[in-house]
Amino acid sequence: MGGFSSEYEISLKSGQVVYDTLDKSKYNAYRIHIFKDKWVFVNDLNEEFPIDKNDFSVVVNEVKINFDCVFNAIHGSPGEDGFMQGYFELLGMPHTSCGMYQAALTFNKRDCLSALKPYGIKTANSYYVNFGDTIDEDTIVKTVGLPCFVKANRAGSSFGITKVYKKEDIQQALEVAFKEDDEVIIESFLDGTEVSVGVINYKGEIKVLPITEIVSNNDFFDYKAKYLGESQEITPARIDDVSAKKVRQIAKKVYEVLKLKGFSRSEYIFKDGDPHLLEVNTIPGLTAASILPQQAAEAGISLSALFENAIESELNS
């Protein structure tokens, strides 16, 4: 838990939920904090013990501890963008998240959407900007229209996102996005019902969880809407059966095409009756307020069953 990005506080909460939920009679769980300046095991007294990065072990009271499996609850870098996956795979360490390439691909919004388009997955119109590029506001507006969304390409939890209504505000929105990443994606505004669909590998089968409808009290589903209660998350979503079937099929297809494993949550907006993909999250929030645990509960899967399945799947693979 932890990480290098603006999402580290949410990750610490997710990790703590996993730690508190796991059955202590089955598992010896350890909280490992991953930060740029330290990798440490934090015990229940909040004492810190450094992790040996050579083999991802820790020495506590002169006893070396090796781990059987990593439950990856790091949102953002380095846990959701492929770095930790590559490290664990080099060590031969089982971990609950998707593979290195899949993590890197899905974390890069531009690349992920481009990879899925040939499979018929619909998306918003988009325009790409890199830090240092000459900004042509007229071409941007001509390509994506107004209002539009200016997003940091590799960031989560709605950090670095601005909804822009006027051409004059594009530059300021880019500055906000560039604080999170040196790549930006600008997308057309899709006016329709927004839904979130969790897909997991549960007991050896790909399972699409009940759909959640997102109704933000704010201008869009921003950080406050996601984490500070300024939204309604309605599970199951108030959409007709045809729409529900469409988005379930697409969410499963995305999971399969990208060859994901573990947890995933993808976001869609309906336009002209068809779901348009916004993004794919491979390490979704796992707090009590998070969407995927809500969906699992609706499907009759408890938090403990959800987490244990992720661990057992890895240990038995």
Notes on the protein architecture:
The protein has about 325 residues and is of the alpha+beta class. It folds into three domains: about 10-95, Rossmann fold (3-Layer(aba) Sandwich), CATH 3.40.50; about 105-120 and about 190-315, D-amino Acid Aminotransferase, Chain A, domain 1 (2-Layer Sandwich), CATH 3.30.470; about 125-190, Dna Ligase, domain 1. Helices cover about 30% and strands about 25% of the residues. It contains ten helices and 15 strands. The protein has helices at about 10-20, 85-90, 100-105, 110-115, 135-145, 170-180, 225, 240-255, 290-300, 305-315, and strands spanning about 30-35, 40, 50, 55-60, 65, 125-130, 150, 160-165, 185-190, 195-200, 205-210, 210-215, 230-235, 265-270, 275-280. Strands 10, 11, 12, 13, 14 and 15 form a six-stranded antiparallel β-sheet that branches. Strand 3 (about 50) and strand 4 (about 55-60) form a beta hairpin. The chain is globular and about 65 Å long.
Chart the SSEs and their pairings.
Layout: H1 8-21, E1 31-34, E2 39-42, E3 48-52, E4 57-60, E5 63-66, H2 83-91, H3 100-107, H4 109-116, E6 126-130, H5 137-144, E7 148-152, E8 161-164, H6 170-178, E9 183-188, E10 194-202, E11 205-208, E12 212-216, H7 223-227, E13 231-234, H8 241-257, E14 263-271, E15 274-281, H9 291-298, H10 303-315
Antiparallel strand pairs: 1-2, 2-3, 3-4, 4-5, 6-9, 7-8, 7-9, 10-11, 10-12, 10-14, 12-13, 14-15
